[in-house]
Amino acid sequence: MDRFKWDEINGEKILYQDFSNLKKEEVVVLLNQSHEVIEQEGTKGIYVITNINSISFDRNTTRVFEEVSAQNKSYVKASALYGVGTWQRVAIEAVGKLTGREFSIFKTEEEAKKWLRTLNAYK
Fold this sequence. Notes:
By secondary structure, this protein is α/β, with parallel strands linked by helices. The chain has four helices and five strands, in the order ββαβαβαβα. It starts with a strand and ends with a helix.
């Protein structure tokens, strides 16, 4: 299963990331791969939609998420996450404050896509 997929919405590059159903150790590996994928693209202003449904999160995962979020800050214009549980939301909000990144949280992929379409409509 391919965990990273490029697409476009309204002419803007979108990176879809599927972190669903991963164990803590697998999440850490994929977070680092995510940075490599984004950095290799080399484009500023990437939009990212990430599925984190049913993943395991711990202190180390959160630390790596914070590091990768800071590294990706100059590349990512907006991030949408879906499949977020209560504790994941707390960690995501904390990482956002620590890195100066804003993460929009949605229940479904379709809601995240709709939000991105709205962002692109007003630029």
